[in-house]
Amino acid sequence: MSAEKTSRRDRPPDERKESLMPEIKGMSVDLEGADWKKSSRSGSAGHCVEVAFVGQATAVRDSKDPSGPALVFTDDEWKAFLEGAAAGEFDRG
């Protein structure tokens, strides 16, 4: 028996809704009505991510695949990421 990979779009509506509500650290996060933001500095090539603030969580997704998976972070995790980025922790060099 082989496992068949399906996208969220191909699933029945009740399963799609469930996949939009990942649970992270005991929080259910409903991404269905999320207000996704893209940086004003992102170019027209579409190589960017979008961020949504949902309750006590921050979600990040690929702007080229809005129905694809999203990474979900707690407020503390997101704050640590932003502080690290501002401090140059992720700079290549």
Automatic annotation (TrEMBL):
Domain of life: Bacteria
Residue stretches making up the DUF397 domain: 34-85
Pfam hit, one: DUF397
Region (Disordered): 1-24
Compositional bias per record (Basic and acidic residues), positions renumbered to this chain: 1-20
Protein name: Uncharacterized protein DUF397
Organism in which the protein naturally occurs: Actinoplanes xinjiangensis
